[in-house]
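Problem 12. The chain below contains 152 residues. Write out its predicted structure in token notation.
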Amino acid sequence: MGKRICQSLAVAAAVIFLSWPGGSSQGWAQDNHKLTMMMVQSYDLLERGKVEEAQKIYEQVLREDPGNPLALNNLGAIMVTEGKEAKALSYLQKALPKAKGYKLKVNRVCTVKGICMAFRPLQDVYGDQELEPLIRLNIQMVKKKMAVTPVK
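Solution.
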């Protein structure tokens, strides 16, 4: 793994919380908390190998928050676990424009089959890490994998 990728992985693993950008109203905070808890649950399922259950929750997050870049990123990670790199790339490319300005801190990072990172949020506080470069890194890793293996 290249030095830049290793450094990016280290930065991603070092951070510990997540937040969605947006307003500060109580309704937004409640919605944000609900989505965060769904993201935590789905990540935990993914980590335990319950991929289908995790995928359903990420899809529910997208129904409630269309274009959520973290849900799209983690769905990309799921597609990697299924060997569907082209679909993973599609999810990541959809996430990229929404990721700019999306600040997060995550408490865990999983590397899926050595290439695509999924992130587990901890709670609803603003972070200082941009999601965009992490998604760009995932896109690079998926493209690199696709260049050496047949596309499904």
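Discussion. Residues 1-29 have pLDDT under 50 and may be disordered. Students who got a different answer should revisit the alignment rule from Section 12.3.
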